[in-house]
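Recall that a protein's primary structure is simply its ordered list of amino acids. Everything else, from secondary elements to tertiary packing, is in principle encoded there. The following example makes that idea concrete.
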Amino acid sequence: GSLRSSGAHFVDETAWINAPSEEEGAVLVNLGDMMSRWTNGRYRSTVHRVLLEKGGTKKRHSVACFANPAYYTEVSCLKSCCAPSVGMPEARYESITAGEDISD
């Protein structure tokens, strides 16, 4: 089938790319920067925007929800995302607290 646009766009290097939505009721999730620390860069936050189609008749709902761990929670690479797990690189980021990460 053809890809329908969700109205969401993200930046891939230097160009805005449509975030396709193949299924009715699909959910698009944007991750924050802290997820990159936890996953050793495997999952990164993206620069993103949402545009409504000109003259479009479809309704679109957008809900922002931000969740962060407590200020003093340690944020470090998940064991499954870095060495010594087989095939995984060394951790790219030092362990810090969630408060330090948010304040950074």
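Strands lie at 4-12, 15-21, 48-50, 74-75, 96-97. The first strand starts at residue 4 and ends at 12.
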